[in-house]
Request: fold
Amino acid sequence: MTDLPHPKPSSLALGEKEDESAGRFTRRTVLAGAAAATAAISVGAVDTPASAQTRHQDMVAFVLLSAALTGIAEGKLAPNFHPLPSPTNIDLEQSDPGSDPVDVKQEYFDWVNKLHQATFRRLLQFAKDSRNASDRAQAIIDKVQATPDTKYLARSIVLMWYLGAWYDPDHLRALVERPNPPPAKFDVISPKAYTQGWALRVAQAHPMGFSEMQFGYWSRPPSPRTDFIGN
Amino acid sequence: MRNNSRAAQAVLSFIGVLSCFSSSPAQAQAPSKPLGQPCNLLSDLVQADPRSPKPAVPSKLTPIDATTKNSILNSGLPCQETVTGDGPDKTKTPLEHRQRGFDFYSWLTFIALNSPADGRGIDQSMPNTKTKWEDRANFKQLLDVMLPGGAASEWTDKKQPPPGCKSQFEANPDMMVIEMIEETFNQPFKTGALIDQQGNYALFDILMNRQMFDYIRTHKLYSKTEQMNAANSNLKIDFPAGANPPDGQIEGGDPGGIIVKVSWKILESDQEKRKFHTVDALVSMPRDDATTEPPCLRKTLGLVGFHVMHKTKSRLQWIWTSFEHVDNVPEKKEVDTRKLKPSYNFYNPKCNAATCKVNETPPWPWKPEPSLGLKFHSPFKSQIVRVTPLTDDTKKMNSQFQGILKGTVWENYMLLSTQWPSDFRCAAKQVSDPKPELAPNTDLEKEPDMNCAPAPTFLANSTLETYSQGGVPLASSSCMACHGNATSYQLPARDANQVGPGGNSAAKFFNQTDFTFMLEKAR
Reply:
């Protein structure tokens, strides 16, 4: 019988090793499989290797971009994200954007891509170009800030991750630039997005009506902030 | 060609692996070994070495067909899951690869637990053959552990049936005895009873293995008073976790804690009895008053639902396996397209939606009326539809395992899914200062998600979580999200500043009970 202290953030899983090593297949092998599937099926809306490659790389870039903008670790925004071959030498093709049962990142990606595709592509390119900079986050932010269209879309993306809601970039710009700004307006992206908003998690709390924290968590000291946001 | 040659070698190596676990007919008749001795190391991927769960390269799915039938069916109980984020189908995500691994593990577990208690292979089963989990040498019913008055018991103690069942039980002490408490007929969160198409109650029961029992006994958690004792004020409930033997070895593993929850249908016709795994049971009706002994009914019960909870060293949030009888209910899509079977256990295909409202709870009262036996008090019959369909991958695996179980009643059961903690860094996180004598030193207070991202997010058995199917966060059934809220009667260490009436601590203490509600049943 004892009181077991909380783990350090660096505490690792017993099963991590086997899972990690097994999970690190490369994007190249995925593409080989996709190519074989394409050849076998030959008709219908099959994902081509080229488009699969682009979508994969774009998602890795989106996770890097989002982490730089929000200050929340990539692995928290996209569980099981693996920058490969190393966090400071990221190969977009090799890296694993992560797969998790909630997968809110895909929902967010599709949302922005549908509404502001051209500007979004520029943001993703910033992340790709800066992925191995010594200060990746700052390098991305510097590029994002350079023009109003990328700056305000980036703000929308920050709000999307934190609040699970969409504030249109043109509207955000109007709030800043107009002498009599219109009232703030937004759309909640989805019920899933509502539960996944980071604003309350950063505050070591949870959204109203949704919590994954243990019953009675309020009766003991909170875990370190790093447990919540990874940084 | 080179790859083909390597694949062929892998298959040969796999056959070698299987032969290590297969039983000859002579061995099969030998006295049954304890479950999980040795651990079943098979996985969904062909292994590189018979003594190691590591997959061969290139990866190839373990065949589940006539060539491997005998070996798979006799491979025993997995002590720990063996899953990887890889597989031959490169279009799948790591999450999907792992899900396939967990589903394969679930089928191995189902086969091992439902194999005959006498040591024969499951392919030798008759509908009423006693299974391993029904054998009191392997599992104990919850109410045989949480005894009246919080009394202690030994694993080897003989079953003490309720007085009303005593004479029938003594005549046949091998019979299953089901005591009707509220949890036997009412669904979780008291959401309602389930009534089959013959108007009978479905019955529910919970059992635990010896590792669970020993932990409860060691810490006297079978007693409410002992739970509240100061000696338990700092105990973090931490049931033993299953682990495979060290890599390259056969011996040395242990299955750890396993809980089984089942649902039964009362069978009335011989025709019905051929489709189910059955038990001859005594059902002790609910007690109405303190002076009258409730009646004890002899019934044939058919297995309709089967949950397994298994704690392993790499999934400290447990692995949650759920099976059902294939004729329980239709999927929603099948109802919408009218692709229905002639009959179901809990759905009437001939009744229209206006008359038989789908997934509605029965009218009050839900408690069985002793004078009616186990018949419901009104003509109401449950009209249950599965809200979340099985995935195509799970259906495919079901069909393969059902193929190698053909000719037994076990071909009539299907895996719904396996829920597992998908954030594996979180899932196996242990305390920062582990103590060897307290292994596995599970950290149960991780935040913000103590469940470590359950996959799939929701999982419901149509007979065990009937009224909480769906996909609404915190409302629909998720094994881990629900069981993560389980707490005990433990009290915090006495604090001089917070002493309430009677000298007890007035402070609140919500001690997590390692994902099981069983400790709430202490008396």
